Amino acid sequence: MHIAEGILQPEILLAGSVLGFSGVAYGLKKMAVEEVPKIAMISCVLFVSSLVHVPVGLTNVHLILNGLAGLLLGWAVVPAIGLALLLQAILFQFGGLTTLGVNIVVMASPAIVVYYMFKYFSYMGNGFFYSVLTFSSGFLAILLGALLLSFTLMSANESFITIAQLSFGAYLPVMIIEGVITMFIMNFLKKVKPELINLSTKDTLNAE
Amino acid sequence: MQNRSVIFSAFVITLLFCLIDNPAFAHRINVFSVVEGDEIVTSVFFSDGSKCKKCPVEISDMNGAVVVKEFTDELGEHKYKTQKPQSYKIVIQTPLGHRAETTVEKSEFENATNEDIQEPTKNIVAPKNRNNLKNKNAGQDIATLVKQEVNEQLKTQLSKKNMKENQIDKRDIVSGLGFILGLFALLLHFTKRKEQ
Predict the structure, then answer these.
(1) Which chain B residues are within 8 Å of A55, Cβ to Cβ?
(2) What is the pTM (predicted TM-score) of this model?
(3) CB contact under 8 A, B13 and A55
(4) Could you give the C-alpha distances from B25 to A60, B22, B168, B169, B174, in angstroms and in order?
(5) CATH of range B24-108; options 2.60.40.1930, 1.10.10.10, 3.10.450.50, 3.40.50.2000
(6) Which segments of chain A are extended strands (E)?
(7) Of A45, A137, A141, B52, which alpha carbon lies 20 to 30 A from B152's?
(8) Which domains does chain A have, with CATH numbers?
(9) How do residues B95-129 score in pLDDT, each as one tens digit?
(10) Cα(B35)–Cα(B137) distance, rounded to whole angstroms?
């Protein structure tokens, strides 16, 4: 989901940068000091996860894990993704510096959406419901990302439907894989270290 | 009971990562073009070295006029027979947002023409048959064959070198992780200091 340089129109780049960097600023503002080590670790995971690739047909797609990061970090996922993308652009030439803002929006917005979805529904049930919810979060984060990617690339390419179909086909395996990974990791953390997912408790929801 | 499910979850997570843990680094396309005679031969590959099959290739002249818009073959290669020797720009842009470009200069065509090897005569002799070496064309034929072989080898080596250079260095991964941890540590340090 890294859009390379030289593809998008300047106005899209500008709008993406404004949105992306505002998100980073807001995420930094909302970030609790105690959460910094966790954010750093998840940012490292996001940085490395893009290197695990899944060959799909004529292209290669890679793990993104934005859904999992969103569930664990909330708004702090935006600076975590931003830093990971910045270093990927500098060190690996994935994406680019001018497209950084757009790439942040494409990856972080779905993470925020699934964070709120999880937050509102996670205390409604345990067991099977919890597993379905976490799977959906991982799945949906990629689906929304693919839709946003298609919407963004619409300015540079053909019709939205064509790109959306193509990206849906390419990212469908990643949606399923990430849904399963998110489900197992969240279940695992709930059992062994529930304080890591304390963002999703009813108290913190009311506190906001 | 709870321990058992924790162990099961840990096992499944590990298994999932093992199944997809193919550390072939992708998600960036690279393009490599060489001039062969009057043809531009373009190779497109991902940063793990895997070929980019059926990738859109757009070749334009330096004025920006598109001269050809085609796709790479199953080997991730594309050949274009040029009309006249001039500089060309080769752009690869996939619908999902990958992009790479390169150029071939006019001088590359001139060099390729000067070094262009003539086809050997039909009756090529095997070096084993020393009597045939007396044939006045034989020496020339062998030289031509050797040149062709060396040329082919050089091209392969160049392509491999290019592919290797475009792969991700493990040092970059480690330094990236170091940067992230270091930057967050600095953030933590300054925030704590401010609080105090």
Answers:
(1) 26, 50
(2) 0.72
(3) no
(4) 10, 8, 7, 10, 14
(5) 2.60.40.1930
(6) 53-56, 59-62
(7) B52
(8) 10-207 (1.10.1760.20)
(9) 777 788 888 887 777 766 555 444 444 555 555 55
(10) 28
